[in-house]
Write a structure and sequence with these properties.
With 98 residues, the protein is α+β, with helices and mostly antiparallel strands. The protein has helices at residues 2-9, 16-28, 33-40, 44-56, 78-96; strands at residues 30-32, 60-66, 70-76. Helix 1 crosses helix 5. The longest helix has 19 residues, at 78-96. The mean pLDDT is 92.
Length: 98
């Protein structure tokens, strides 16, 4: 029951798009904005809004990379990796108790 309460308290990762972003970033560390658009199949405005929410929470850092042209990149923070791990463990606990 505690795991269920823990899941319901995390309003950041409780959103499927934000959870998808974090699950994509977790093993990779970083991704380009365009890469996330393609994987999640959301609009640029929608993705931008979710990324800003994650950045305000301290889960990701949004920055520019300058290769052949300027691009927006996102990297997961230590806090983001830790909180995602806790969320996934709580989800696993809930599912195993069913």
């Amino acid at each position: 029951m505690e795991s269920l309460r823990e899941l319901s308290r995390n309003n950041i990762l409780g959103n499927p798009i934000r959870l998808g972003i974090m699950l994509y970033l977790l093993p990779r560390g970083r991704a380009l904005f365009k890469e996330l658009l393609d994987v999640l199949e959301v609009t640029p405005g929608n993705l931008d809004s979710h990324l800003k929410t994650l950045e305000r929470a301290g889960y990701v850092k949004i920055y520019k990379v300058f290769e052949d042209r300027p691009r927006t990149a996102v990297r997961i923070t230590e806090k983001g990796a830790e909180e995602t791990g806790k969320y996934l463990q709580a989800l696993k606990n809930v599912l195993s108790s069913l």
